[in-house]
Amino acid sequence: MAVVRSIYSKTPIKDFYLDLAKFSTAKDLSIDGRNLIDHTVTPKQQHRPDLLSYELYGSSNYWWTIVMLNRNILKDPIRDLKTGTLLKVISPANIAGVS
Questions:
Q1: The pTM is what?
Q2: Residue 8 lies in a domain
Q3: How far apart are CA 96 and CA 76, in angstroms?
Q4: Contacts of 48 (CB under 8 A, 6+ apart)
Q5: DSSP class of residue 89?
Q6: pLDDT of 17 above 70
Q7: Vertex 56 angle, CA 64 and 74, to 5°
Q8: 3-class state of residue 21 by DSSP
Q9: Torsions phi, psi of 67, nearest 5?
Q10: How, if at all, do strands 36-40 and 86-90 pair?
Q11: In which band, very low, low, confident or very high, does the pLDDT at 54 lie, cut at 50, 70 and 90?
């Protein structure tokens, strides 16, 4: 059976939008008095900040806090989230009210 390729299969991937994005930093988060803990990314969480957030906090809505706290490690929030990466995250007991 012949493999059918899309007309887009040879389209290069451009990440220039990541250079334009100016994400907030950990200082911009309201994390005063909140405990930060270490978390090592598991194979299941690789390339999935939303799944990592869900497994830590019970909601995928906090993925951005993980990315902001680890901007020095996660330049690309999806591709740089690899198995074995050690991250600083807000403890699950202290995530409520972060905005």
A1: 0.70
A2: no
A3: 25
A4: 78, 81
A5: E
A6: no
A7: 40
A8: coil
A9: -65, -45
A10: antiparallel
A11: very high
Number of domains in the chain: 1
Structure tokens at 90: 């807000």
Residue 72: inside a domain: yes
Q: Look up residue 3 and give its two tokens.
A: 């493999």
- Identify whether 58 is part of a domain: yes
Which of 24-33, 67-76, 84-93 shows the lowest per-residue confidence on average (mean pLDDT)?
24-33
Instruction: Identify whether the C-beta of residue 83 lies closer than 8 Å to the C-beta of residue 41.
Output: yes
Report the SS3 class of residue 38.
Answer: strand
Domain boundaries, position 47: 24-94
Write down the residue that tokens 């995530």 correspond to. 95
Under DSSP, the state recorded for 76 is S
Q: Which amino acid is at 3?
A: V
| Residue 11 resides in a domain | no
Q: Whats the size of the chain, residue-wise? A: 99
